[in-house]
TrEMBL record:
DNA-binding as UniProt keyword: yes
CDD domains, alphabetized: PBP2_CrgA_like_9
Family from the record: Belongs to the LysR transcriptional regulatory family.
Name this polypeptide is given: LysR family transcriptional regulator
Keywords recorded for this protein, A-Z: DNA-binding, Transcription, Transcription regulation
One GO BP annotation of this record: DNA-templated transcription
Alphabetical list of InterPro entries matching this protein: LysR-type_TF_proteobact-type, LysR_HTH_N, LysR_subst-bd, WH-like_DNA-bd_sf, WH_DNA-bd_sf
A GO molecular-function descriptor: sequence-specific DNA binding
Originating organism: Paraburkholderia elongata
Sequence ranges assigned to domain HTH lysR-type in this UniProt record: 15-70
Length: 318
């Protein structure tokens, strides 16, 4: 029994080293990987040195400015990723025979969606499945699901990558809004083309074309080039600027639902909107994972009807 326990501990340590190796390669930094995994940089360096010694190859080229994977490291990285995927796949294959889900879930999403909605929902999921490990990363850009080793990306807007599996979570749209003060001062736009003469608060989402708003209306889809003196990649900021009377903003209905109800913002050109459904995206090889299926279904349920649901109907004429 003592020998068996020692073997189990050794195997677990080896898997942790492979996970550590993959994280350093993904981050391009020993410090960032050590922070993510809650380890000291010295311990990380020691474990990688032991892994290099056991494999007999140099995995990383280290300089004072950056860490890069060597050619041997690239080959080792492919093996490490496959081993970790196979181990997790084996666990997933038997997951339905257990009452508790286990393993690590790596999830990415945008900043406001993650902070206000996904994060508390994942906390609820963790209460139901205390043996799950969760890493949530909030990004102001579109995540590379495969390259950055995420299990799920929660995103707004169309999923264009053909190699990914898209699971619709919530039907939603982006709408145009402005404060009553701004509209009283500058007038209410009567047509989409009028926006070219208005101050528009430019919010660039994770994959949006900057300075061009494309919306669907009574005569199909139309585009209008908009300009403004202030812009941000955070929706919180542009929504606040809109409430402060600086111009017209286009954001998801759930982002401004409370402001519309409070009268801080008014919907502009209500016949126009931009489709902005919320999706959970996975790599094809992960789509059958029990952990991921449970997580996606729980997120869908909570985002549509739970305490942290996205409000997408019943406000602003939508």
């Amino acid at each position: 029994m003592e020998n068996q326990n020692a073997l189990t501990a050794s195997n677990e340590s080896s898997l942790r080293d492979l996970q550590l190796f993959c994280n350093i390669a993904r981050r391009g930094s020993f410090v960032a990987a050590s922070t993510e995994m809650g380890l000291s940089p010295s311990h990380v360096s020691k474990r990688i040195a032991m892994l290099e010694a056991s494999l007999g190859v140099k995995l990383f080229q280290r300089t004072t400015r950056r860490v890069s994977v060597t050619s041997d490291g690239e080959a080792a990285l492919q093996w490490a990723q496959k081993i970790l995927e196979d181990v997790q796949g084996m666990a997933d294959a038997f997951a339905d025979r257990r009452t508790e889900l286990r393993g690590l879930l790596r999830i990415s999403t945008s900043l406001r969606l993650g902070r206000e909605h996904v994060s508390p929902i994942l906390s609820m999921l963790r209460q139901r499945h205390p043996n799950l490990e969760i890493w949530l990363e909030l990004l102001d850009r579109r995540a590379d699901l495969v390259g950055e080793n995420f299990d799920i990306d929660i995103r707004v807007g169309e999923v264009q990558e053909p190699h990914l599996i898209a699971h619709k979570m919530v039907d939603s749209a982006r709408i145009l809004c402005a404060s009553p003060e701004y509209l009283a001062r500058r007038g209410v736009p009567a047509d989409l083309s009028d926006l070219a003469q208005h101050d528009c608060l430019l919010f660039r989402g994770r994959d949006d074309r900057f300075g061009v708003w494309r919306l669907s209306g009574p005569n199909g889809e139309k585009s209008v080039k908009v300009t403004g003196t202030v812009a941000s990649n955070l929706s919180d900021i542009v929504v606040q600027w809109a409430k402060d009377g600086y111009g017209v903003v286009m954001v998801s209905i759930w982002d401004v639902a409370e402001s519309l109800r409070a009268g801080e913002l008014v919907r502009v050109l209500p016949d126009y909107l931009q489709s902005a459904d919320v999706w959970a995206v996975t790599a094809e090889r992960l789509s059958s994972s029990a952990r991921i299926q449970v997580c996606i279904e729980f997120l869908r349920e909570q985002l549509t009807s739970g305490p942290y649901a996205l409000v997408t109907h019943g406000v602003g004429g939508f």
